[in-house]
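Hi team,

Below is the intake form for Golgin subfamily A member 7/ERF4 domain-containing protein from Cherax quadricarinatus. Please confirm the fields before the structure is written into the shared record.

FORM ID: S-0412
PROTEIN: Golgin subfamily A member 7/ERF4 domain-containing protein
ORGANISM: Cherax quadricarinatus
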Amino acid sequence: TKMADFDAINTIERDEEDNSSSSLESYTQTPEPVIIRGAGNITVFGLSNRFCRDFPSALTGRLAPEEFTGSVGRVNTVLRKTLPVSARWLLCGCCFCLCTCGCSLWPVICLSKRTRNAIEKTLEAENTNLYHKLGLHWRLSRQRCDNSSLMEYVLVIEVIPKKDILRPD
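The structure came back. Fields below:
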């Protein structure tokens, strides 16, 4: 009979542990990321020539509108400097595509990759200087467009989940 009592106590402890872990999981859920789509009139390989500077309501209370506008403005500055050159190379590459068996598009591909790297570098500097301290993380991500199978680059702002100090290692 002593072993049966011991098993009953174990079962009760497991139930309490299950309840406490489920309440911790519900407490540590992070909100959906905020997605900022391109708002320009030129798109080269899925990268628009500017991003929308309108402050999303989901960031209210987490971030000042001026900081958001400044960060999007810095990303747009990178795009303003690099994307017109890529668009010209794309137009030129398309004109000579048949003559060069597609090799004339390589400069556009390289310039597009350079532009993405410059944006990612800018976002990493923004994250290090400000956003990680506020519990946010910005990144450039490729996503499917809403109405088609085409891909586009968007800015994603994620909330960094806080570490639960009450939960054991």
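SUMMARY LINE: Residues 9-27 have pLDDT under 50 and may be disordered.

Thanks, M.
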